[in-house]
Amino acid sequence: MSVATLRNLVALAAGIIFGVGLSWSEMVNPRRVLAFLDVAGDWDPTLLFVMGGAIPVSALAYVLSRRMDRPRLADAFRLPERTDIDPRLVIGAALFGIGWGIAGYCPGPAIAMWALQWQEPLVFLLAMLAGSLAARLLSR
User: Model-level pTM greater than 0.85?
Assistant: First the structure.
């Protein structure tokens, strides 16, 4: 089996595990997400446990990656090099949060939910792509 084939199989397995995890934790349910974001109203803290589990796993993977010369299936790690906070980052984060608060979706859960139902996540994903293209055009 070639490295490229193995890389694709590992990526597929990771995507399936991620999608199942999003579905199982109900991160794909916009009502659950919106209830989590409604801290001044009928707040649902259950997604806090999802983040509470994900953050340590991600932090551990980051620490372990720093101890490795290179990844097993790639030539190099592609970690962020910039650490500054600029207006573009703040505006992008604000737009992401506003979109998440309005729709109850962010990109990962929207893609996972698209496999389960058709119209609502598709509208979100198309709007997200249009916004990304507009931002790219405006930044030139």
Answer: no
